[in-house]
Each structure stands twice: as structure tokens, then as C-alpha cells.
């Protein structure tokens, strides 16, 4: 697994038009908090029990049309869930998996707020909110 900060991930996506950015947060986070422009949504965990989706890797395989060599970048809220999801993709045979460090919202600051110290949105990268 490779790790890129948000700006490097964005640059990678601009250079590698075959790459897929997967937002692995919940549907609620994706829709209401916002998401990177062009990100595909495939939740790693969902629901009240915060259960891992056993079909996650299969859903991502469909996104890449079965090409397990196609670069897949994963982004979550802070860069933690995306690491777990990346490990699962590697175990499923994906060869180019990249975790977006800091995620969409970045780490908590001293006041327990996000998007003040890092993350996709903090960096001013293109994003959309439903």
C-alpha cells in the first residue's frame, strides 16, 4: 500500500486518468459532509452496528471492471478506515492501492474539530456537497 497526502493524491489523479478514487465513508458522510469531485462511493462500514461490508472488494472490482492493476485511491474521514479498506483490497488481489493520508476532514484539533489541520477539504481541493 502506498500513502499520499491529499495534494499528492489529487496530482496523481490528474496524471493517471485510469485511477479510481473511492470514498469509503458511510453514505451519510459522503452525501451530507461532502466528497471529492469524481469520487466513487463504496462504504467500507455502514449501518447502526458499523459492520464491515463483506462485499466491499467485489464492489470495487466492479468499479475497475475487473482490472486489479488499475490504481485505486481510498479516502475516508481521517485516513484510518481507508487503511483497513486498502488492506482488504490488497488481500483481494489489487496491486496498486493508495491510501489518502488525512482523509477528507483531517485530524481532530485541540477543540475536537476537523477540517482545521489537514485533509482534502482543508487543502482546498475540489469537493462537492449534496
Assign the CATH architecture.
3-Layer(aba) Sandwich
Tell me the β content: 15-25%
Under CATH at level 1, the class stands as Alpha Beta
Query: Order of strands across the biggest sheet?
Result: 1-8-7-2-4
| Largest sheet entry | 5 strands, parallel
Measured between the Cα atoms of the first and last residue, the distance is 31 Å
Shape designation: globular
Number of domains: 1
What is the name of the CATH superfamily? Rhodanese-like domain
Output the structural class.
alpha/beta
Question: What is the third-level CATH name, the topology?
Answer: Oxidized Rhodanese, domain 1
Record field, number of beta strands = 9
Radius of gyration of CA atoms, rounded to a whole number: 14 Å
Q: Helix and strand succession?
A: EHEHEEEEHEHEE
Q: What do the pLDDT scores average to?
A: 95
Q: Uncertain regions: pLDDT < 50 for 5+ in a row?
A: none
Helix content: 25-40%
Number of helices: 4
